[in-house]
Design a protein that fits this description.
Length: 72
């Protein structure tokens, strides 16, 4: 995968994340660009939910969007 494909894949994922969790800011997403693991922490902070719930939501998101996630 080249750099352009990776950037395009990230833009697609970013759009899906914004649809799912609209309270996440562009700054949050910029931080996440390099680390998918930080997503649940950002969701937990923005939505004031338990860590377990945030992780559950992220797992569901990953399962639903597995075709995109493999490119992240």
């Amino acid at each position: 995968m080249n750099k352009d494909q990776a950037a395009g894949g990230w833009k697609e994922i970013k759009g899906k994340i914004k649809q799912q969790w609209g309270k996440l800011t562009d700054d949050d997403l910029t931080v996440l660009e390099g680390s998918a693991d930080e997503l649940s922490g950002r969701i937990q902070k923005r939505y004031g939910i338990a860590k377990e719930e945030a992780e559950k939501q992220v797992k569901t998101f990953r399962d639903t969007n597995s075709d995109l996630i493999t490119r992240w």
